[in-house]
């Protein structure tokens, strides 16, 4: 399949990734846009992993208030002021604040879950899996714990505007797009209800 400038532009408009990365993904996918999107997602996760050690010295605060009754603020961190002042980066911070206002997560990442919270949840779910075959208990328990904490961890939640993506996917895409590590450093939610 021929790779045209229109197909490159279409993929760039969908993903926000650079023209060269879109062209390479389309070449790798033999011109298939759907496959190219999958390739770009795979590359965004790898790109985010490579940049995990970098220090975050800048960022933007996104805020969202819904009907004057629920509000949230998110500190979205990055490496440089150049990215922090980018309108798309600022818009992402606001989108994440909207996510926090809507879903009220307890943790930003899985690593923040305390051992006590994990132990408490494990004790509850161990009773539920006690009657299952012994060789399946560990796997069922792991699935129940993962499901239980998914809604409480911001990065594991489905994005409210596109449930085919998680918040982690958004952050990985932003890392690839801006060429810097992007991370939710802190968030807060207030409610009058």
Overview of the structural elements:
- With 193 residues, this protein is of the alpha+beta class.
- The chain folds into three domains: 5-50, Helicase, Ruva Protein, domain 3 (Orthogonal Bundle), CATH 1.10.8.10; 58-104 and 165-191, Elongation factor Ts, dimerisation domain (Tetrahydropterin Synthase, Chain A), CATH 3.30.479.20; 114-150, no CATH class.
- Helix content is 54%, strand content 18%.
- It is built from eight helices and five strands.
- It has helices spanning 5-15, 19-28, 33-50, 81-84, 87-103, 115-129, 134-150, 167-178, and strands at residues 58-66, 70-78, 158-159, 162-166, 183-191.
- The strands form two sheets. Strands 1-2-5 form a three-stranded antiparallel β-sheet. It has a two-stranded antiparallel sheet with strand order 3-4.
- β1 (58-66) and β2 (70-78) form a beta hairpin.
- The longest helix is centred in the first third of the chain and has 18 residues, at 33-50.
- The chain is globular.
Return the structural class.
alpha+beta
Radius of gyration: 20 Å
The best one-word shape is: globular
Number of helices: 8
What's the name of the CATH homologous superfamily of the largest domain? Elongation factor Ts, dimerisation domain
Q: How many domains would you count in the coordinates?
A: 3
Summarize the amount of helix as a percent range.
40-55%
Oligomer: single chain
C-alpha end-to-end distance: 56 Å
**Main beta sheet, described?**
3 strands, antiparallel
CATH topology of the largest domain: Tetrahydropterin Synthase, Chain A
